[in-house]
Amino acid sequence: MTATTTTRPELPVVHDDPFSVDVLRDPYPFFSALRDAGPVVWLAHHGIYATGRHTEVATVLSQWARFTNEGGAGMADIRKPGNWRPASVILEVDPPAHTEVRAALQKILSPLVVRQWREKFQAAAEELADALVASREFDGARDAAEAFVLSVFPPAVGIHIPRENAQAIGDMNFNAIGPNNELTQAAAARAQPYMKWYEDSLKREAMLPGGFGELIHQAEDQGLLQKGFAANLTRSFLRGGMDTTISGISAALHALAQDPDQWALLRSDPALARGAFDEAIRFEAPVQVMFRTTREGAELGGVALAPDTKIAAFIGSANRDPDKWPDADRFDLRRQGAGQHLAFGQGAHVCIGQMIARLEAECLLGALARRVKRLSLAGPPVHRPVNTLRTLDRLPLVVEAAA
Ligand code: HEM
């Protein structure tokens, strides 16, 4: 990895492209170079500022008064000509407008409502775990994480989404948050045939009864949300909760399959499943990077940033920052304070669906831990390169059932 210093001695330049396929397949050498180069760097390949240290990433994500979301959560400033697209009415607005929308959604996601889904998630996890153990060899990414999340999460939102549609739309979304590179263009082309179906499936009349989507539309009827917000919010909900949770559960299975002691520990106490998931998403952050724009000029890590400047906050790097995490590159489900990771973001926009993601992970990992004595890799795992999402395409696993 190469880092040099510009004519401005305080600002290092990193030349590698974090969105190249090689870096996306193994981003950790890049992250290490990014953190070592300085608290704020210039990513020459994309002409954009970036930070990869825990302190600065947390600052950028949480201090909305200095780092606004209104220029969009992606690399392009959606207020600039040529980049316009409709903004997410929750993620791409600042308080106070954000506070109102968030409060309405928070009501819908009350602990009571979430608890009502627990039984369904648990039953689906037990059934899938039985089938996986009976098959002995399976793909941890597709047959376990993806199959499980698609069986419980879209129905909870109130949508039926076939696997091909889900993956094409998810890859389009998470590539588009990054640069308009070949990955983004190919993903947009692949998703094109599903776009009409996608738009239609977010409409009120398409919502399956009893899901969060229906409650969101009802909140609009009751005047708790502005007219026209419900479909946009349902989209943010589905977009935020599907690929991320698949990625996090796959990462947990991957890490656990590589370390028999950690699997034995989880087996000895399946209640550790929740902690295992938090450590997994610290270790392999599903959302690798989010973007903000300076409002006025802002100082960050001793660097003065001009008004209206985009900055990339590399969550995947912050979660491996050795100044924050002792033995940062080790997956350790006994790690103290693993929950302080930035995988769910930080501040006003911190992930509103985190208890749903944790519930899903807890159900599936717990169900497997109760049934499987030994979990191992049956072949090399393969990551799918997506600009802003860390995700496994293949995770061949073999299990030995508990007696
Ligand atoms: C492991 C799973 C998940 C991860 C890693 C994750 C990650 C994140 C991150 C990093 C943010 C903040 C983005 C930013 O500040 O720019 C966020 C926000 C959000 N997430 Fe999640 N998420 C997950 C699961 C979910 C689920 C299950 C849902 C829906 C039930 C969801 C819905 C949302 C929404 C609506 C926001 C926007 C909140 C706001 O702007 O106030 N996410 N998520």
- How much of the sequence lies in strands comes to 5-15%
Number of domains: 1
Oligomer classification: single chain
Count of helical regions? 16
The largest sheet is: 7 strands, mixed
Cα(first) to Cα(last) distance is: 49 Å
Class computed from helices, strands and strand pairing: alpha+beta
Helical content class: 40-55%
What is the strand tally?
Answer: 14
Instruction: List the ions, cofactors and other small molecules found in this model.
Output: protoporphyrin IX containing FE
- Fold-level CATH name: Cytochrome p450
Protein topology:
Layout (H helix, E strand, L loop, with lengths): L2 E3 L6 E3 L6 H5 L2 H10 L3 E3 L4 E4 L2 H9 L4 E2 L28 H12 L2 H25 L1 E3 H18 L5 H14 L5 H10 L3 H7 L10 H10 L7 H13 L1 H15 L2 H9 L4 H11 L5 E6 L3 E3 L2 E3 L4 E5 H4 L35 H18 E6 L4 E5 L2 E6 L1 E6 L2
Parallel strand pairs: 2-3, 4-10
Antiparallel strand pairs: 1-2, 3-4, 5-7, 6-14, 7-10, 8-9, 11-14, 12-13
Helix pairs in contact: 5-6, 5-16, 6-12, 7-8, 10-11, 12-14, 12-16, 14-16
Bound molecules: protoporphyrin IX containing FE.
